[in-house]
Specification:
The chain is 24% helix and 34% strand. It contains eight helices and 18 strands. The radius of gyration is 21 Å and the shape is globular.
Length: 376
């Protein structure tokens, strides 16, 4: 069957992947290029592979899939002026595309980057975990001390992905080696996120993609698997995806936990667009953590936004393709899977995204599947 696309093919516009200075190679690059080529087919564009980050293009000549969220200067260089020009997002200040905006400052007037929004922090305080964003050693000590009164504290680097750059502390004294390694501050280029640590955590993904002619919104749950070192790492996501916006998603028969996560992600999404004028995204994903703290209290809160290509993007584009191929369908299930086990069979109906030996991760297979409903 011929590939379904959103519009007739226009070879004058080329879709390119922009690595944004990241080293080329490995399973992540292969996965991103797989998604980019699939998107080119859906959008009816020519596929140009990897594009140079420093190459300037007139508006409308390129559709860009960048490795990370872009700032306005980078977007202009690529000729990007709206969500119709990229798969990802554009922000006015670099920190807006990181975990830092998820939490407010430890006190009014605390050190923060130019463009910081106290209003955003106040608008989303009820849909995120208890926490702070800090930019000086003294504010880090204060924030950690406050949160430690009710249990362990997770300290996160705002730019790292996949759970990297995180540590859990149980006493203020455990901070000192971290502070020493970062220097005296202020850390306006980086900063740190300090938030309530949860155990027995389930991570729900809520997101939206906007492509030419269709908007699709989803909710799903992430899986954890063991890698070759025995560590628990990301192992894929199961998505329930529907045509339309967050309101359309709310009309599906969701569980109570899913419904709460959707409402929290929707609030975060809407307020971010309002409080940071000039921010836009054609791909938006929000990770919502649900679990218990050290005292057994249950929490649900948005951890971060992802306005860039991500681990669930293969499932996102396959879901859109399935909805296009079957216009009468209200929703579709799509899932990504990752496995480090050579013996694990790959389903016959799966599309292989990566299969081989990664220089860092070792053997790894990634694939994506779609189905009409949970039972088919």
């Amino acid at each position: 069957m011929a590939e379904i696309s959103l519009r007739s093919r226009d070879a004058r516009r080329v879709l390119v992947y922009a690595p944004m200075g990241q080293p080329l190679g490995g399973h992540e690059l292969a996965s991103h290029l797989w998604v980019a080529e699939r998107l080119a087919g859906l959008l009816g564009m020519s596929y140009g592979g990897i594009g140079r980050d420093t190459e300037r293009h007139p508006r409308g000549e390129r559709y860009v899939v960048p490795y990370r969220t872009l700032n306005l200067r980078e977007a202009r260089r690529f000729g990007i002026e709206s969500p119709a020009d990229l798969f990802g997002g554009v922000v006015t200040e670099d920190f807006v595309g990181t975990k830092l905006i998820t939490h407010g400052l430890v006190r009014p007037g605390a050190v923060a980057p130019s463009g910081w929004s106290d209003l955003f922090a106040s608008k989303i305080i009820d849909v995120v975990l208890p926490g702070f964003s800090v930019f000086t050693p003294s504010d880090l000590r204060t924030a950690t001390g406050q949160l430690l009164r009710e249990g362990g504290v997770r300290i996160k680097s705002p730019r790292d992905m996949g759970g990297q750059g995180q540590r859990v502390v149980k006493t203020v004294d455990e901070l000192e080696p971290l502070i020493e390694s970062m220097g005296p501050g202020p850390w306006l280029e980086d900063g740190l996120v300090v938030e309530r640590n949860l155990d027995e955590v389930a991570t729900i993904s809520v997101g939206q993609v906007v492509l030419d002619g269709i908007q699709a919104t989803y909710v799903g749950r992430q899986r954890l698997i063991r890698n070759h070192d025995g560590d628990m790492v990301y192992g894929g996501t199961d998505l329930l995806c529907t045509r339309g916006d967050f309101e359309a998603l709310r009309q599906l028969p969701l569980t109570g936990d899913q419904r709460l996560a959707v409402e929290q992600a929707r609030c975060y999404h809407d307020e971010a667009i309002r409080c940071f004028p000039g921010t836009y995204a054609s791909r938006a994903n929000y990770d919502v953590a649900q679990g218990k703290d050290a005292n057994g209290r249950w929490y649900s809160g948005v951890l971060e936004q992802s306005w860039r290509i991500g681990g669930a993007s293969a499932a996102e584009v396959e879901a859109v393709g399935s909805l296009l191929a079957h216009p009468s369908r209200r929703a579709v299930w799509a899932s990504t899977r990752e496995s480090y086990d050579r013996r694990e069979p790959v389903p016959d109906d799966a599309k292989i995204v990566f299969h081989g030996d990664d220089p860092k991760a070792g053997f790894l297979v990634k694939y994506v599947r779609t189905k009409r409903s949970a039972g088919t």
